[in-house]
Design goal:
Two copies of one chain form a homodimer. Chain A is of the alpha/beta class and about 325 residues long. Chain A contains eleven helices and 15 strands. Chain A has two domains: about 1-125 and about 300-330, Medium-chain alcohol dehydrogenases, catalytic domain (Quinone Oxidoreductase, Chain A, domain 1), CATH 3.90.180; about 125-275, NAD(P)-binding Rossmann-like Domain (Rossmann fold), CATH 3.40.50. Chain A has helices spanning about 45-50, 125-140, 155-165, 180-190, 200-210, 225-230, 245-250, 260-265, 280-295, 310-315, 315-320, and strands at about 1-5, 20-25, 35-45, 70-80, 90, 100, 110, 145-150, 170-175, 195, 215-220, 235-240, 270, 300-305, 325-330. In chain A, the strands form three sheets. In chain A, strands 3, 4, 5, 6, 7, 14 and 15 form a seven-stranded mixed β-sheet that branches. In chain A, strands 10-9-8-11-12-13 form a six-stranded parallel β-sheet, with helices on both faces. A two-stranded antiparallel sheet of chain A has the order 1-2. In chain A, strand 9, helix 4 (about 180-190) and strand 10 (about 195) form a beta-alpha-beta unit.
């Protein structure tokens, strides 16, 4: 039998009890070309909330009754596909379930001889690390001595972005939602300054910590933080638009910041989705793995045991309670 | 004596009687290195409103008591500067006045043997044409077959952008504020379709006229038009952020559109200011002059006689009453 989380209602505002329903179904027989994957890890990400909206965006809309969509790492248990053999460890959109049947499309093998733990391929070497790497380096092309501001800086993506910024010689200022997170950014990750948006005077602190203005803004949040950052940005500065977590639970679409600063400061803003970079993941892996081995990048995973806890755990992303990349452990390897 | 418009109050909302005051002063003696320019034409542009705000933006803030700032064409009447001789026709930031004294910085000579009328150097070959040329070609790099939407399409800049779009093989849809303007765009300038935002169903018309979505948006206005356009834009599309005329008279800063579309559609938005391209103006002049000679670009100037009418005339930009590039004729050549 296969335990699964099913999208039962399109959430309005926060995800609530009953929007996702936990159920059991039979594991189907494999057709020609298909594989059966036992899911080990499930990635929980802010973007998941958007997928639940019933609106087509950069992925097809989910329908009521669908297995909740999610990125997974699993092991191939049965195979009718010559590209995969039993025991292969694979990355897939395996969904919130114990087992998934796939025709192999979009399923990528994870190398086993890297010396890194398997859960690192759900975070630093998974979508999280790829998002940070391409979103910062490809979109904004940071130069030594520039000032980089990162929102949700203690989050899974933001913390990697912040450290890559340091590697590239930037002055890095992180915005986060607790003193503990702010301290971790400066003391453990070695960035140049941090701002607690819940307690600090955001505009005053930005002025103090970014005396030469802001050259690059890595945007994860939207809302009033963005307004404050825009007002300190330099002429010819860049924005990497990665996420807008403050908006994902909104019941109606809130307006954005006025475009006046984008105009008079000739800002270049670019939205991106990490899937656009799939063909270049190896390039990112090579850099990121070297940086992790050299101790230049640290990462934290917040692993929640048990698939049954997934619908509760995902709420931590929006309350900011997670402590590192949020992952559900569905089974042991 | 020198008649001048002086900034007497920072306007709140629309420019009102008394914000600008018409007065006379003596023409000062020339110092070493200075020239005296008799102003012939004064350019009136939406951006002028921003200059009156008392806020530093891409130009220094104006102060109360300053001569109102403006781009001019004039003739050198006296010279203490070896770079200029009496009779030179020059482009300068000569201000809203009959005569201006300059040290020659930022003053550019206009060639006399072009076969084009002098007022064309206030429009198609002036800031207007340069803005259209670089704002479309450099910022968005239009490709044959792409769909370009232009707001304020019947305006001085928008009408040039629309025609350059056609020259580059785009499907061009213009948004304007009257049926007469909409008809002129399609019948006289030959663009593919136009939308009267005051009477048409904007979203419905965009859908009908842009069946393949929108690849490029040339933004002159801001406000609800922008929201509607964003919702039809394609993945990987581009926005050239040239102006936000709907906001210039606002008494408080209105929010902008939500950034969700910029993110999921991976839109590249770039603000620009034409002055950044000064070193490349000749390049634009060469293309634009060929296109005008070949009949591929038409332009209209709306010339208001008399400096005394400047403060009244500028309001036409915001009501949409101007009919072509708005220019004040201060004197005859």
């Amino acid at each position: 039998m296969n335990k699964q989380w099913i999208l039962s209602k399109f959430p309005v505002g926060e995800i609530k009890e009953g929007d996702l329903v936990y159920q059991e179904s039979e594991i189907p027989e494999l057709n020609e070309g298909e594989i059966l994957i036992k899911n080990i890890y499930l990635s929980l990400d802010p973007a998941n909330r958007g997928w639940m909206s019933g609106q087509k965006s950069y992925v097809d809309a989910m329908n009521i009754g669908d297995i909740m969509r999610g990125g997974t790492i699993g092991v191939v248990e049965e195979t009718n596909n010559n590209d995969f053999k039993k025991g292969d460890i694979v990355n897939a959109m395996g969904g919130w379930q114990q087992f998934c049947v796939s025709n192999g499309k979009g399923v990528r093998k994870i190398p086993l001889d890297t010396g890194f733990p398997l859960d690192s391929f759900m975070s630093i070497f998974g979508m999280t690390g790829m998002t940070a790497y391409f979103g910062l380096l490809d979109i904004t092309k940071p130069q030594e001595g520039e000032t980089l501001v990162v929102s949700a800086a203690a989050g899974a993506v933001g913390s990697i972005v912040s450290q890559i910024g340091k590697i590239k010689g930037c002055r890095v200022i992180g915005i986060a939602g607790s003193q503990e997170k702010c301290d971790w950014l400066v003391n453990d990750l070695g960035i140049d300054g941090s701002i607690n948006y819940k307690t600090d005077n955001l505009r005053g602190k930005l002025k103090e910590l970014c005396p030469k203005g802001i050259d690059i803004y890595f945007e994860n949040v939207g809302g009033p933080i963005t307004d404050a950052v825009l007002s300190r940005m330099n002429i010819g500065s860049r924005i990497s638009l990665c996420g807008l977590i403050s908006a994902y639970n909104a019941e109606s679409i809130a307006p954005g910041p006025a475009w006046g600063n984008l105009l008079v400061k000739r800002i270049n803003l670019k939205g991106f989705i990490v899937f656009d970079y799939i063909k270049r993941y190896l390039e990112a892996y090579q850099d990121l793995s070297n940086w992790v081995r050299d101790g230049k990048i640290k990462y934290k995973n917040d692993i929640v045991p048990g698939l049954e806890n997934a619908s509760h755990a995902i709420k931590k992303l929006f309350s900011g309670e997670n402590n590192g990349k949020l992952i559900v452990q569905i089974a042991d390897l």
